[in-house]
Design goal:
By secondary structure, the chain is an all-alpha fold. The protein contains six helices and no strands. The protein has helices at residues 17-55, 62-75, 81-100, 109-117, 123-141, 148-191. It comes from Desulfobacula phenolica.
Amino acid sequence: MKDIHGIRPPVQVGFDPILFKIILMVSAAVLVAALVFFLVKKFWKRKKHSKDQKALPQPLAPYEAAAKALDLLFQRQMDDPRAFYFDLTIVLRQYIGRSFGINAIEMTSQEFIRSFKTLDLDKGIKKEMAEFQNISDPFKYAGVVPQKDRVKKDLLLIKAIIDQIEKDLTKQAELLSEKQAERQAEKQKERA
């Protein structure tokens, strides 16, 4: 019986399944930790960013911005008529541009006149705006000095034009909302 040797235990070949499971679990834990870290970081960044946005002032509506600018022009001394007419024209152009979505600031006077003639405005307002543009150009570009009462008159004219346009836009918005409400009511009747 000396020829018989004892049976040896089986020899493992390749990876140990327990070691493989441990490596997978550690890798999964690292990935989950990294994911949690980036989600928390993103959450804090978003929270901080939302606080910063609340601190920013809301831009003024076109009419409010124009009214504020006109008030500043009323209070200002007219030392330089050329600069005054440039500022007055810019107030009008910014209001028209922001209210109707056109780039009025970058236009020449003739382009501006052509562009607002296509807008849905009262013909009288269009005529007054065109006359103002034609009258103010010599003051701005040719060095012509206006009379003191002319400056006040033009300032009041621009204020009246902007006020009238705002009233017209408000009426149009009210009519549009009424029509939409009527359409909603008709749709609800049809469904019922």
